[in-house]
Amino acid sequence: MVKFQFPLRDPAGLSPEAAGRLVKEAIGCTGRVQIRKGEKSGDAKLIFHVLSLSARAGDMLEIQVEGEHEKEEAARLEAYIKEYL
User: Fold this and answer.
1) What is the pLDDT of residues 20-64, one digit of tens each?
2) CA atoms within 13 A on the CB side of 54
3) For residue 11, how far is the Cα from the chain centroid?
4) Comparing C-alpha atoms, which of 30, 59, 55, 58 is closest to residue 42?
5) For residue 49, what pLDDT is reported?
6) What residues contact residue 68 under an 8 Å CB cut-off, 6+ apart?
7) Could you please report the per-residue DSSP string of 13-71?
8) How confident is the model at residue 9 (pLDDT cuts 50, 70, 90)?
9) Would you say 51 and 14 are in contact if contact means Cβ atoms under 8 Å apart?
10) Exposure of 65 by Cβ count < 10 A (0-12 exposed, 13-18 middle, 19+ buried)?
11) What residues have CB less than 8 Å from 46, skipping those under 6 apart?
């Protein structure tokens, strides 16, 4: 299992458009991808789970990747998030 945290920098927070792009990236992973904000967590491959976090600018989020290629997939997701979220 590989975890990483990141602050949400987008002033709009995790908008439906940004959440959709994140879900699309997560779906490209072969392993399990979870997203967490505080006590709330969900499957990062499901748009309703991601949107239910109600993440706003400045919130700290965590991604957890489990699977055969978890290191590579976590690195790819982290790079995507740093660039776009």
Assistant:
1) 999 999 999 999 999 999 999 999 999 999 999 999 999 999 999
2) 3
3) 17
4) 55
5) 98
6) 30, 31
7) -S-HHHHHHHHHHHHT-SSEEEEEETTEEEETTSHHHHHTT---TT-EEEEEEESTTHH
8) very high
9) yes
10) buried
11) 23
Cβ 65 vs Cβ 1: under 8 Å: yes
User: In angstroms, how far is the first alpha carbon of the chain from the final one?
Assistant: 22
Neighbour count for residue 25 (Cβ, 10 Å): 19
Tell me how long the chain is: 85
- CA atoms within 13 Å, Cβ hemisphere of 8: 23
Residue-level pLDDT at 75: 97
Contact 80, 25 (CB under 8 A): yes
